[in-house]
């Protein structure tokens, strides 16, 4: 591949990446023009610097002006192409049926269409699949249907009860009745953006299905890739059982093609083994190696045809995933090179494969799996050889086992920090220990899959031989996932930090001076990550009201101390609270408060399994029921059962008016009979009210227990005028999707700033910046009721 071709490929990829910057394509064109004007120019280097770096005193730019301008144009066209390929809802898209009046009420519809792909199991235990919508009937009330058979278009994200979604096949015509809804954007900092994810897949609405029926008179598909995939999975699970059987299948077909239990996937991801469950280059190498061994006596043409057919079958079974297609394209290039007796350049092959796939679908540039696959492959190509060279004192096999995980980890770590903010300290050790097992399981799984297509009984027998290696792999993963410090949160890094880290890695790869001083690049990289974290721990004070449904939640970051008020239910704790804490670089909770008098501790069990809680507070008048207690609260990183906490200092029942001072934060239950708490956050008084009736509010005011507070935090329900006079807030924050209209009018009349999480998303307060909201929206975007 010529230098000009390499530059143009890089320009195209950079043009896609720079789409996050408004006018980024024109910026690349401008840089190309400037580079063309500077081409073939001479620049003088100060003699002292030239002598110290052993450079000539005159330096000439030798690049081609035409290539510079062409690269700028390619970057501009790439950004325009990305915008043109970005999906938008059509005029009759099913999402257009979502009315503004249905935001806080159910809009029941019956949608007809065809199933796209195979159903998958969600974390909540429901069946999920994509559906190509064709017709919609809107159900107003039971037994009454309006807008019958209205033609629509677009893809629909559908979830169903597990039993109703079982047995669905790709291409099957169905009708689903359920709630039509608009997907929500990320409402909390660092949260998964469900709306953006669906839009990238070409969908702009979701359907929470309740009932499904087959469209009469339409044939049921009897064959397809799903049938072959299902046959392989059933064959391998038959004698292996679960989770060993699904694990073997996922290591052959990829986890996207197999419903592997989420606890297994989470454990693999936690210790840095998620790549073992992803169909990509490793499986491709195994399949090609097996085909070439079986066809070694045949002509090269037959080997190419057989290898290409095997790759096509693998792509069909694993699905059209970008990482799978990248591996298949590179494998095909290797086959062509074998047949033509030419030497292939792996780096050029990787660049061409990436460019070709991004020409086919430019939206894949933001697919995290695609990005990690490219970086890991690049790391294996350019970093494994020098690492093996430095380990030449070891046997070659062991040196390779060590070099491969080091290279992949080095090149993917910055992106993982950018996306997740986590470091897996045991990743390299675990990869070293498990690589032999993964190789055995993968090779045996491929052989078992091939046998399953010819003789299922033989496929089950071969899979049965993999039981002990698979069971051993699960045991190793389980052991390391339970070790303390198996996953350390350092907080997500910025785009600038990401660019600098990869710049340092590229310098250590390309520049001889940095290659000899790789340790210096490593120290700079560590400082680039650690110093901002240290500065945040010593200076930061931030209070965050998370946007959650149900129980309101507050996170207080007071330098190195972290406080958590309420946990929510199990789903909120695991999908909202823990990811937020993780991306903030929080590895323990210093103090926690349960404000509700009913002691709904469902979410605490999820949190204490992941993070130690050093002190836990609740109201003294609340009676803790054994069934409501969290299973453990950790003190000094040791799990302690909650029934024994009442007698220990880290679990305290606070009486009315009793104040606990923790750093710059003070916590006090105002009333032990009602869920009313007072907080003092960096000298700013907050008052928390939960679901108080008007009579309870008036009784609270008459008791004289309320003191003026700058911030009123409540659940969006009606507030009495006497209560507002007693508190005299300047800011009112409602943890609710809507606010009582009369209360909102009263607050505005008193010129009190009003925020609510249903409209504004998560709300963050800092002493120097005031209150900021996650969602930049106008107050009229979401109705009050």
The 3D shape can be described as: globular
Q: How far apart are the first and last residues' alpha carbons, in Å?
A: 62 Å
**Major β-sheet, in short?**
8 strands, mixed
Number of DSSP helices?
28
**What integer value in Å does the Rg equal?**
30 Å
* Domain module tally: 5
Count of extended strands: 27
Question: Helix/strand-derived class?
Answer: alpha+beta
The share of residues in helices is 40-55%
- Whole-number mean pLDDT: 84
Regions with pLDDT < 50 over 5+ consecutive residues?
622-649, 778-785
Provide the spatial order of strands within the biggest beta sheet: 18-15-14-13-12-11-26-27
Strand content: 15-25%
Protein name: ComEC/Rec2 family competence protein
InterPro entries: ComEC_N, Competence_DNA_uptake, DUF4131
Membrane topology: Multi-pass membrane protein
Pfam family, one: Competence
What would you say this structure looks like, in words?
It is a single chain. Helix 27 links the parallel strand 24 and strand 25. Helix 1 packs across helix 13. The C terminus is likely disordered. The chain is globular, with a radius of gyration of 30 Å. It folds into 5 domains: 83 residues, no CATH class; 129 residues, Nucleic acid-binding proteins (OB fold (Dihydrolipoamide Acetyltransferase, E2P)), CATH 2.40.50; 264 residues, no CATH class; 43 residues; 231 residues, Metallo-beta-lactamase, Chain A. It is an alpha+beta fold and 785 residues long. The termini are far apart. Helices cover 46% and strands 19% of the residues. The strands form 6 sheets. Strands 18-15-14-13-12-11-26-27 form an 8-stranded mixed sheet, with no helix packed on it. Strands 19-20-21-22-23-24-25 form a 7-stranded mixed sheet. The chain has 28 helices and 27 strands.
